[in-house]
Write a structure and sequence with these properties.
Blueprint lengths: L14 H13 L9 E3 L6 E4 L4 E11 L11 H17 L4 E11 L5 H17 L3 E9 L5 E11 L14 E5 L4 H21 L16 H8 L5 H9 L6 E4 L4 H12 L1 E6 L7 H9 L4 H8 L5 E5 L4 H5 L4 E9 L4 E4 L5 E3 L12
Parallel strand pairs: 4-5, 9-12
Antiparallel strand pairs: 1-2, 2-3, 3-6, 4-6, 7-10, 7-11, 8-10, 9-11, 12-13
Helix pairs in contact: 2-3, 4-5, 4-8, 4-9
This protein binds adenosine-5'-diphosphate and magnesium ion.
Adenosine-5'-diphosphate binds next to helix 1.
Length: 360
């Protein structure tokens, strides 16, 4: 069909998730041609059964200049590292280990060679950290902006795989690390960028070398620029023979990602605000911006921590880990998805959205 003859409904009207649902209904019939495909669209990775009785998990992510990254605020080596980490994070969300990646780039012809070399040095350093290989990709020219696409394949024993579905009433809701840092760090980076541009426009000197002197904002900014995928948590689960009942990585914000777990599992949940681990620097930054750090944690996104559920009898083992917090409980679906705030009031978490592309 010719683009000019199509009825015009902008994708902004249905949003990212509405669009994925439509794509999913078009391609669903193709799933029957691959009986070893265990899981298609809907989880953090597609899942494919290998003959050896292990599952292969595969994910892909796209980073677009000026949508996902801004070269004025992002060191190129960090960008390479983050491009890989965000996909490895989806592998971890399936309780799997990353094995190899294919990386594709589209670049305007004027891009310096050194940019690409630095980008790949960042990726390679991070691949070594995750004990995985960079095994190929594709290269193309582009008109104006830079795109980076990373596909990662991982592996997991069949009986260890963890989906977004699987949470049951009574399970404990847990989260790794601290939240809100990435959104807070981004706020600071954007403020500094605008200050810098304003100084340049006015012909004044800009003497705050923020990008090299992160000072009091260092943890929040590095949570944004260099989010580590939690391969260490997958190893911890294996060591302690824990298989979470469900898991997702927090890419869009706690509110939206717990909603994915609840929807896919057919359950409700109650999250206790006072138990949500918020990065202390995110609180300071929220004060500066007259915002709330809780908002950063609930709907800022890009923290790439793991959100998972476990059976209550695993509490002691989980509590022994210094970087895991128990933040709530899974309930029957009809009890809804609630946030108990610090005053004891229940707030409907579904009314708090997460990051979604195409929305104005
Ligand atoms: P994540 O944040 O974990 O990367 P997304 O929200 O990007 O997950 O995607 C949710 C699900 O939708 C995934 O299973 C993904 O494979 C699928 N998906 C996203 N975009 C597309 C697309 N353009 N075509 C087919 N499937 C897609
Ligand atoms: Mg994910």
């Amino acid at each position: 069909m010719n683009l000019l003859k199509m009825s015009f409904k902008p994708i902004a009207d249905i949003g990212e998730f509405g669009l994925i649902e439509r794509i999913s209904s078009i391609v669903s019939s193709s799933l029957e041609s691959s009986p070893k495909l265990i899981e298609g669209i809907g989880d953090d990775c597609a899942v494919y059964e290998l003959s050896s009785g292990t599952f292969q998990v595969v994910t892909t992510d796209l980073l677009i200049e000026d949508i996902h990254f801004d070269l004025l605020t992002t060191p190129v080596q960090h960008l390479g590292s983050k491009a890989l980490s965000v996909s490895v994070s989806d592998i971890c969300a399936m309780n799997a280990r990353p094995c190899y990646a294919l990386t594709s780039i589209a670049l305007p012809p004027k891009t310096p060679v050194e940019f690409v070399e630095t980008l790949y040095r960042g990726m390679n350093e991070t691949a070594l950290l995750y004990n995985m290989a960079l095994a190929g990709g594709d290269t193309s020219s582009s008109k104006n902006s830079i795109s980076i696409s990373v596909m990662v394949a991982g592996e997991v024993e069949k009986n260890h795989i963890t989906y977004r579905k699987g949470a049951e009433p009574g399970d404990l809701v847990c989260v790794t690390g601290s939240l809100g840092g990435s959104a807070a760090g981004l706020k600071v980076l954007m403020r500094e960028k605008n200050l810098m541009l304003e100084h340049i426009r006015n012909g004044e000197q800009y003497d705050r070398d923020l990008m090299n002197n992160l000072g009091e904002y260092d943890k929040a900014i590095s949570q944004h620029l260099l989010p580590p995928a939690r391969v260490d948590i997958v190893a911890f689960f294996e060591k302690h023979m824990i298989v979470p009942t469900s898991m997702i990585d927090i890419s869009d914000g706690l509110a939206s990602d717990i909603a994915h777990i609840c929807k896919m599992s057919g359950v409700g949940a109650k999250i206790d605000e006072s138990r949500i681990p918020i990065l202390p620097q995110a609180r300071l930054i929220a004060d500066e911006f007259q915002d709330e750090a809780l908002n950063f944690a609930l709907s800022g996104g890009e923290d790439y921590q793991l959100l998972f559920t476990i059976k209550p009898d695993k509490f002691d083992t989980i509590a022994s880990h210094p970087d895991i917090s128990v933040i709530g409980k899974i309930n029957p679906e009809n009890e809804g998805l609630l946030l108990k705030d610090i005053y004891g009031m229940n707030i409907d978490l579904l009314s708090i959205g997460g990051y979604s592309h195409f929305r104005e």
